[in-house]
Amino acid sequence: MNLDKEKAYRVKSLSQDILEHLMEDNTSYRHDDLKYVIEMLARSVSDLVTLYTDREGDHETALKGTISKMRIGYNILQYKETSKLVRKQDKYHEMP
Predict the structure, then answer these.
(1) pLDDT of the residue at 62
(2) Mean pLDDT for all residues in the chain
(3) Under a CB-based contact definition with an 8 Å cutoff, are residues 64 and 7 in contact?
(4) Which of 32, 40, 33 is nearest to 15 (CA)?
(5) pTM of the model
């Protein structure tokens, strides 16, 4: 499989991971965090459209940038989920 296809599949995988996080009923996110995630996803879509329409561009770099933006969005959602679990654990364990 060529490198561009691998990276395209990585973009798809990250988008599915982001959707899974957002569809969880028991997790709530701050407005500012969601706004930032939406910004990163919109920039990713813009990158992909540029990649698709500009046959002369540097596809490898564009895909790397897209993956980075999507990872940032995913990490924001992942951080919120992890911090929620830590808060729950702290709630049940008294601090010395």
Answers:
(1) 85
(2) 81
(3) yes
(4) 40
(5) 0.72
Q: Please, are residues 73 and 40 in contact by the beta-carbon 8 Å criterion? A: yes
Residue 95 has pLDDT above 60, yes or no: no
Nearest 5°: CA angle at 90, between 84 and 96? Answer: 160
Percent of the chain with pLDDT over 90: 30
The structural domains of the chain, with segments of one domain joined by +, span 3-92
What is the C-alpha end-to-end distance of the chain, expressed in Å? 54
**Contacts for 26-30: CB closer than 8 Å, 24+ residues apart:** 27/80, 27/81, 27/84, 29/77, 29/80, 30/80
Specify the pLDDT at position 69.
93
SS (H, E, C) the chain: CCHHHHHHHHHHHHHHHHHHHHHCCCCCCCHHHHHHHHHHHHHHHHHHHHHHHCCCCCHHHHHHHHHHHHHHHHHHHHHHHHHHHHHHHHHHCCCC
Place of tokens 């407005």: 31
